[in-house]
Write a structure and sequence with these properties.
The protein has 400 residues and is of the alpha/beta class. Helices cover 41% and strands 10% of the residues. The strands form two sheets. It has an eight-stranded parallel β-barrel, surrounded by four helices. Strand 3, helix 3 and strand 4 form a beta-alpha-beta unit.
């Protein structure tokens, strides 16, 4: 199995993961550019173009490709204006000059622009394009995508995954995100959260990097109110990678997150490369606890000073957005995947979504048995999240 890894632009990260000989490419971007991406500026490394060029050189030195992210799901239609078109072309020319091997997009017109002007750059499509059916995957392939990141609904649906691998072109690479903890069938992800993230990292956007991420708060609240959501999320255990290797045919696993430390990312790569991890599974899954720190909060401070939100409420958001730490012994999950192989989630009603109509409570049962969490911290986090959501919905966040 080969991996695409998030980079925090620490050259030592590249040097360390190169030893495993499994990382095919790394992906990242400037904290803000004309296109924007899938993370807000406030959580990204504060780097410039010179840093990117140097980092790409380090990647190539170790035989690792670099993928520059242009994965904004919404660009305010700038890509379809003369000025926006010119700015996009200029950015991609710079990225190509700096040595990038490929680009990731979440925008159909942008895919066409790149294929027309930059035939030497491979184009990947982002999870935010949300290809959840085989026909959608084939449509993206027809448009010229060289790599396609599949919607999470493919991750544990092996009949569906096998079929899409059978019918795609031999030259098209498919990617699954392995260690995110997004909600199963998330109601917030697209277009809501995806568009929010796009605008929070776009130059010239009126938000100027200011980002009240109510989507992350609502997501965290839903997980804490029903811990079964933790297992419903379509992450892949390192020990189960061999099941995906057997499928072969240009399947790559993608590991997140760009806001993580070098030690954290190396630990994740080691676990997935060795297909083995002893200890807390959530040491390598992208669970947004207190270890997931903002890199720089300048846009938030400026926003508060300009009256975009009340400073007292922003301070609540600063801590309330995070989740308490949890512990799940990975060794207790042997055979975990077999349940999903027998019956894909798409065919079932989950207990957490409709207890009276549910025909499966597998994840809730696992949570009761395996999740260790400080109950006081859990309840405190739930209360803070509820306060934040109420403050935004009522307008208290912004003043009278």
């Amino acid at each position: 199995m080969e991996y695409d890894l998030a980079t925090n632009f620490d050259d030592k990260l590249i040097e360390r993961v190169a030893e495993f000989e499994t990382v095919k490419s790394v992906y990242g971007k400037l904290p803000a550019d004309i296109v924007g991406g899938g993370r807000p500026t406030i959580v990204l490394p504060n780097i410039n173009r010179k840093d990117i060029k140097k980092h790409i050189e380090t990647c190539h030195k170790h035989g690792i490709e670099f993928n520059y992210l242009l994965n904004a799901s919404c660009m305010d239609n700038k890509e379809l204006t003369a000025e926006g078109y010119k700015e996009i072309i200029k950015l991609i020319e710079q990225v190509q000059e700096d040595g990038a091997n490929s680009l990731t997009v979440s925008n159909i017109p942008l895919l066409g622009i790149i294929k027309n002007h930059f035939p030497d750059l491979k184009v990947s499509t982002s999870i935010y394009m949300r290809p959840s059916t085989i026909n959608e995957v084939l449509s993206l392939e027809e448009m010229g995508a060289d790599e396609i990141t599949l919607c999470y609904s493919f991750n544990r649906n092996f009949p569906k995954l096998k079929k899409v691998l059978d019918v795609k072109k031999p030259t098209t690479s498919l990617r699954l995100i392995a260690n995110n903890t997004c909600l199963h069938d998330c109601p917030y992800r697209v277009p809501g959260h995806a568009n929010f993230l796009a605008h929070s990292s776009q130059q010239k956007h009126e938000s100027k990097g200011f980002a009240l991420d109510i989507f992350t708060v609502m997501c965290g609240l839903k997980k804490l109110e029903n811990l079964g959501e933790i297992f419903m999320s379509e992450w892949i255990r390192p020990e189960d990678v061999s099941d995906y290797e057997e499928l072969g045919r240009n399947l790559v696993l993608k590991l997140t997150d760009r806001a993580r430390t070098t030690d954290w990312l190396v630990r994740a790569v080691r676990a997935y490369s060795e297909q083995n991890y002893d200890g807390n599974l959530f040491d390598i899954l992208n669970w947004m606890d207190g270890k997931y720190k903002q890199t720089h909060i300048g846009p938030m401070i400026k926003g508060a000073l300009k009256g975009k939100a009340k400073i007292q409420q922003l301070l609540k958001l600063k801590t309330g957005a995070f989740l308490p730490e949890i512990y799940v012994d990975n060794r207790q999950l042997e055979g975990f995947l077999e349940h999903f192989k027998k019956s894909p989630c798409e065919d079932r009603v989950c207990y957490s979504r409709s207890p009276q109509n549910a025909d499966c409570n597998y994840c809730e049962t696992l949570a009761e048995r395996l999740v260790k969490i400080n109950e006081q911290e859990k309840q405190s986090s739930i209360s803070r999240k509820q306060e934040i959501i109420t403050a935004i919905n009522s307008g208290e966040m912004f003043g009278k």
